[in-house]
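Human: Respectfully, please carefully check these tokens:
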Amino acid sequence: MYKKILLLTLIFVLFSIYLHSCQKTDNTIVAEVDTEKITQAELNKELNNQYGMEVLQNLINQKLIILEAKKKNISVTEAEIEKEIEKVALNLGGIDKLKEQIKNRGVSMNDYKEKLKLDILLRKLIVADLTEDEIKVFYENNKQKLPIVEVSFIMVPDKNLAESIIKSLKNGGDFSKLAETYSQDPISKDTRGYVGFLARYDISRNSPTFKALEDAIFKNPKPGNVIGPIEIQYNNQPLYYIVKYHNVLRTYEEVKPKIQELLAQQKAQEYIQRLRKNANIKINYKQNLEEKK
């Protein structure tokens, strides 16, 4: 379920790139095309024209989140940020891949942590605003999808290989390393097998062909267990799945944190709009649109 970094965080990252570029000397040459040069000033102007108002609006949102958090005495610890980084890294296939992505965006790890901090602050603000009734209504409406399982997959098209992997796991083999080496599952091939949290019908709703896999996963899930190989027929070709359970959430108390997280994601834009509506916001900024005339 937790497969994406929020759009808000990505826009904050764009702002960081823009801010970093603005700190350089305007006449710095940032690129050369044959005999033509592109200066930092030209780049700043183009960034301002394309993203200026969008970045400003998100800066306003940032300030609103920070002010509201201060008002409600809500903060984020370094441990919470590190935990969030671990979650994102797990979904990307490891901390090295996350660092590579951050580097490719031209953003420092410290800047990235600040953006995650804002994301966590917003989530905490929304969760603090949720009533027990809201959470219980969501739970009652979605009970038929329980339990929620956190799993990893290894998928191979050869039964003998699948059985060899099972044998290796029974002898203490590392699931994530075996997944990285052998798995051809399109969902998790880049995440060392990690799929994340699944509720009943998540698989069959999107891919009815894989209902047999879903039925096997939810037949008797137990944390720490490994099951398989599970044979699936896909386009007249057999595929063999091996599934490892990390967590199995059944009761209301176990599922409650996931419900809060889901509701926080659903209500993020609505919450920010409410903050904006109740705030005194004055915008003096005007984008330079001369080049577009």
Observations:
- The domain at 147-249 is CATH 3.10.50.40 (Chitinase A; domain 3).
- The chain is about 55% helix and 15% strand.
